[in-house]
Amino acid sequence: MAEKKEIYSALKKYFGFDTFKEKQEEIISNLLSGKNTFVLMPTGGGKSLCYQLPSFIMDGVAIIISPLIALMKNQVDAMRSMSKEPGIAHFINSSLSKSAIDEVKNDVISGKTKLLYVAPESLTKEENVLFLQGVKISFYAVDEAHCISEWGHDFRPEYRNIRPIINKIGEAPIIALTATATPKVQNDIQKNLGILDAAVFKSSFNRPNLYYEVRPKTDDIDKEIIKYIKSQKGKSGIIYCLSRKEVEDLAEKLKVNGISALPYHAGMDSSVRSENQDNFLLEEVEVIVATIAFGMGIDKPDVRYVIHYNIPKSLEGFYQETGRAGRDGGEGQCIAFYSTKDIQKLEKFMQGKPISEQEIGKQLLSETRAYAESSICRRKLLLHYFGEEYDQENCGNCDNCLHPKKKMEAQDLLCTVLETILEVKEKFKEGHIIDIVIGKETSEVVDYKHHELDVFGTGKNEEVSVWSTVIRQGLISGYIDKEIENYGVLKVTKAGKAFLNKPKSFKITKDSDEDEEIEEKQVLKSGSGAADEALFSMLKDLRKKIAKQEGQPPYIIFQDPSLESMATTYPITVEEMQNIPGVGVGKANKPYVQDFIALIKKHVQENEIERPEDLRVKTVANKSKLKVEIIQAIDRKISLEDIAISKGLEFAELIDEIDAIVNSGTKINIDYFIEDEIDLDKVDEIMEYFSESADGDIDEAINELGPDFTEEEIRLVRIKYISEHSN
Fold it and tell me: Helix (H, G, I), strand (E, B), or coil: what is residue 198?
């Protein structure tokens, strides 16, 4: 084993440090002594050094198994910068040509290479196994080891083949490293890698410098994010989105609003993706908008904010992604936007997967939802999830602690929950327990005859959200335990049984109801939704006057939401007018638009109004490829049903898209489809209705025209009417 002096000498020589962080020295010493090692260390804690430094000291080459090509490249570049020998670190993956792989193998055989990064897929290839069998291996490092576990947030089946491949190549110590692992995931990793004997080194998951906040996700999310980023000028940030399309759209929207941003996702050309990553690391851009593919192992210590555009599918994923903020110990703002729609979308993604996988996914998702909706300390919740106790009542660095909500006494409610769990022999999950308590006769409750229990319906006067809060805070307080192995079955702990025998004060904070909050905000808005009621009224008068001149209903000129937006953002140029919702290039260049511009300009000057132009969210011209493709398909007279199928849309969603296209001023012709699908007399009657309608409201049209007309028919003919008379 290397002496302490040799370890510190290597630390200074290769990394330029005089001292180690927390448990790094113990971890390195354990590995150098040839023992298996398990490292659970939060992002920014210095995991990489735990295997990089021993590789320089030990004989042979260290095999670093890593899941991402971007991660390998980043770390190989970093290792080469520390040595005069460029061959000291290499990677083998699918991005290399045959000649490049031959060069790597020559450096390994000659002894130049001390670290060889390999993707798990590459490790299983027969030619690589044969090659490594003839090489002296110092140790195996399994980075991002949570990928092994189905309960991990980034499960990869190929990671489960690592142990059999190691057995084929040849025995050597194993070090497994992860930034996120619940006790269940940790056990999975050790069992699968065959290192149950490993020395375990666990660092605290608490990152005191990180501020956690959850905001309700509304239609104004883009505007909110743009305002936030502009308030963080000169700071680096990452925004995580669920889909590639959201990544592309948001990055484009940030750019047109004067923010230097680039997209990053797995569907991009690898060279462009690498270039975007490098531009972020080199601070050529301030913001990266990415899917979760970005950031694993990215060594950028000064990321000042991480925004989640969608709530993630697991708390482990959330923790790791937020962990990329403030790695230098400085400020790190972690803001997540939450809506129940995103949860439903994630649940939909699970459909079609094996039942066991769906159950695991639902359980992980329920933990994320609990975090987002909870009113107790975010830090306490996160640390509890990872099996760590947080004793402080108020962390002082999360939204719930900085703006605490009122508490209510819930001693009796907790007793009811504990009694119910025991009554059903500790064999059921949270949802079932709540159904019993509130008296909901679901098929499962009736099948098990749980509607006959004395506790059935005793809690019907409380909301479901209150019972969820009681259970969640009962878990955190140690009165209830959740069996992860059995997909969340609830048990009563020893402390819970003691509480039942001798109840004491148990206070809970009522969790926020996202829908209620949003509804409340909407009630507080002015009746029209416009910021400037006086201007909105004048714009409506002008619209009426122009509609009369044009011989058209007012809504054909502009719909109310467009006028509301004008009375909020005060557009005074044609270019600004193009960015008003429902006003595209075509409509903005209509002669009558100048009358609206003149009215707004006069109102602004007379009232000395300071326009919010700098904070206005500019829309992206033709930002959606989808709209262009729909217009092109209609020009080729392709059936609307076929267009919907080819674009993966429901027919109603396609009509929404076409509706948006014509309302923004683009003329399209769907007569070919209408003539085939709708009776001519019906078309004439609907056209006549809309020629006399003041606002073109669909619901009113359905009521007026009667049951002989379907909503689909009315919407299609309305599109025809607007396109012919407005555009």
Answer: coil
> Can you give the pLDDT at residue 557?
83
Query: What CA–CA distance (Å, rounded) separates 565 from 575?
Result: 15
Q: Residue 428: which CATH number?
A: 1.10.10.10
Higher pLDDT, 502 or 389: 502
**SS3 annotation, 652-708:** HHHHHHHHHHHHCCCCCCCHHHHHHHCCHHHHHHHHHHHHHCCCCCHHHHHHHHCCC
**What ranges make up the beta strands (E) of 46-160?**
61-65, 89-92, 115-118, 137-142
Phi-psi sector, 236: left (phi>0), alpha (psi -120 to 50), beta = beta
For residue 265, being part of any structural domain is answered with yes
What is the model's pLDDT at position 167?
Answer: 93
Q: Are residues 424 and 499 in the same domain?
A: yes
End-to-end CA distance of the chain: 80
CA distance 146 to 364: 14
Distance CA 137, CA 135 (A): 6
Report the distance separating Cα 159 and Cα 145, nearest Å.
8
pLDDT for the residue 210: 96
| 189 and 234 within one domain | no
Residues 6 or more apart whose Cβ sits within 8 Å of residue 504: 411
Q: Are 603 and 535 in contact (CB under 8 A)?
A: yes
Q: Residues 240, 135: one domain?
A: no
Compute φ and ψ for 519, nearest 5 degrees.
Answer: -60, -40
Same domain membership, residue 282 and residue 196: no
| Span 163-183, pLDDT tens digits | 999 999 999 999 999 887 778
Total domains, the chain: 5
Whether residues 630 and 572 share a domain: the answer is no
As a whole number of angstroms, the distance between CA 490 and CA 713 comes to 51
Q: Are the beta carbons of 321 and 306 closer than 8 angstroms?
A: yes
List all residues 6 or more positions away from 478 whose beta carbon is below 8 Å from its beta carbon. Answer: 493, 495, 496
Q: Is 365 within the bounds of a domain?
A: no
Same domain, 80 and 194: yes
Radius of gyration over alpha carbons of the chain, in Å?
30
Classified as helix, coil or strand, 63 is: strand
Return the closest-CA partner of residue 122 out of 76, 71, 69: 69
pLDDT at 313: 85
Token pair of 689, please? 């209705």
Distances (CA, A) of 583 to 31, 559, 561, 620: 65, 9, 10, 12
Sequence-separated (6 or more) residues with CB below 8 Å from residue 417:
433, 437, 467, 470, 471, 474, 480
Residue 280 lies in a domain: yes
**Domain limits for position 605:** 533-615
Eight-class DSSP state of 483: E
CATH code at 25? Answer: 3.40.50.300
Last residue of a domain, one of 580, 615, 650: 615
Q: Who contacts 226 (Cβ-Cβ below 8 Å, separation ≥6)? A: 253, 254, 257, 259, 615, 617
Hey, what long-range contacts does 157-164 have (CB within 8 A, 24 or more apart)? 158/120, 158/121, 158/124, 159/67, 159/120, 160/192, 161/120, 161/124, 162/65, 162/120, 162/123, 162/192, 162/193, 163/192, 163/193, 163/194
* Residue where one domain finishes, among candidates 563, 586, 615: 615
Q: Examine the pLDDT at 34 and tell me if it is beyond 80.
A: yes
In angstroms, the CA 39 to CA 47 distance is: 8
Report whether pLDDT(152) > 90. no
194's torsion region: left (phi>0), alpha (psi -120 to 50) or beta?
left
CATH assignment of the domain containing 706: 1.10.10.1390
Return the sign of the alpha-carbon dihedral for residues 42, 46, 48, 53.
negative
Is 374 within the bounds of a domain? no
